[in-house]
Amino acid sequence: MNLDKWDAHRDVRRVSAYGRFGPDQKREFLSHLAFGMSQRRIGANFTGADLQAVYESIHRQFSLPRGEAANVVAEIESHNGLVLKSGFDSLQFYHKSIQEYLCAEVISRLPILPETLTNFWSLPDECAIAASHSGESSMFLAMFATRCFEELTGTADDGNGH
């Protein structure tokens, strides 16, 4: 998914109110937003409060000002429509598959599966996509299967070999 090419094909130039927050940075931001929503078990539709909570955990990575979640997403909506307002205090990714794909991009680049992502097995679509994106698909699948087994059986290692 290359947003620059999409705009270039349509001969559109977009200027961000947030400096160097161009298409590549927006894509990365949306990936982290989707991942944050998944970590918090927030589904396809989310509220302004959900958005704000995830935004507060990622805005520094993208040099975005604190408290600007609604404005940043409004700019993304007007520039590419991947996130849109769907009600009074309701937003959503354009399609659930886009949210899953963006989330999977983050998961596939993680050096290890995060402890904070409890019940990891409840994200089968994102994990399947992540496995296909991973440079080490076999290793990713082995880690994923091990994590699922540990979560299901309660045998997770506490970090001290126990």
Produce a short descriptive summary.
With 162 residues, the chain is mainly α. Helices cover 54% and strands 7% of the residues.
Number of helices: 7
Q: Mean of residue pLDDT?
A: 78
User: Distance between termini?
Assistant: 43 Å
Instruction: Report the count of strand segments.
Output: 3
| Biggest sheet layout | 3 strands, antiparallel
Helix content: 40-55%
The run of helices and strands is HHEHHEEHHH
Which descriptor suits the 3D outline? globular
Taking strands numbered 1, 2, ... along the chain, how are they ordered across the largest sheet? 1-3-2
- Beta-strand content estimate: 5-15%
SSE-based structural type = mainly alpha
Q: Please give the radius of gyration in angstroms.
A: 17 Å
